[in-house]
Amino acid sequence: MDFLKSGSRPHSIFAVNPEKNFLASKDSVLSETLKNADLLIPDGIGIVLAARILYGIKIERIPGVEFMEDLCALAAKEGYRAFVYGGRDEVNRAAVQILEGRYSGLEIAGRSHGYVSEKEMPDLIKRINDSKAEVLFLALGSPLQEKWFTAYNHLLKNVKICQGIGGTLDTIAGNVKRAPVIWRKCGAEWLYRLLAEPTRIKRQKVLPLFAFMVLLGKFKNLLKGSQKFQ
Ligand code: UDP
How far is the CA of 216 from the centre of ligand 1 (A)? Predict the structure, then answer.
């Protein structure tokens, strides 16, 4: 991946889904961080459908967890170091152990749980810099991880890629189960997650509104198109 070879600044990679899209409409820091991101991953069937309906673009859904796994495999192969920041301490520790076992040669040069206070932040930044990690995984959930990136990325000395991975460590550690492959293929991973964790309804209640906004957008585009030919 070119980001690892080009320049000295950290490149940001964040996943987008309909919930985050709504959050961004009310949160200017999140919105700016996403706009300025070096790469946005369509981690949500809603985003894939919206791109197709609104712009006629066919994109594939890329779950953040799979992107992270690919990045780990690449880091192991090419000898890049990683730092994993986020999640509860026991989850972070377990996930790091699993990743090191899964990707032979992967050097996780440092790790930290995700409950670091403002006061402790300079210490954490120093640990990240001292680890010489080129890849930083931010597992704080949204919008915390995006805000962290915007606030602190200028202090990172070696990091070339910073991927926001949300609750992925919980999945790797086995605390949260991913949907079986058949659900994923049908684009229903969100439904599986909702059935497994009904409290997520608070976040997912924006989905019907998202669908409505996309259809409204499509209708407006059609209207504009027909006016052009009048
Ligand atoms: N988390 C954290 N620090 C915080 C708040 C949350 O490290 O101050 C972690 C939390 O332990 C969990 C993750 O962030 O592992 C959030 O997971 P969630 O599935 O809610 O995030 P999403 O992927 O939906 O953004």
Answer: 32
**Is residue 195 included in any domain, yes or no?**
no
For residue 162, the enclosing domain spans 2-178
Residue 186 lies in a domain: no
Measured CA to CA in angstroms, residue 147 lies from 16, 27, 113, 141, 142 at distances of 15, 10, 17, 10, 8
Distance 138 CA to ligand 1 centre (A): 10
Ligand 1 pocket, residue 15 CB under 6 Å = no
pLDDT tens digit sequence for 80-139: 999 999 999 999 999 999 999 999 999 999 999 999 999 999 999 999 999 999 999 999
Q: Residue 10, SS3?
A: coil
- Please indicate, yes or no, if residue 131 is contained in any of the structural domains: yes
- How far, in Å, is the centroid of ligand 1 from the Cα of 230? 51
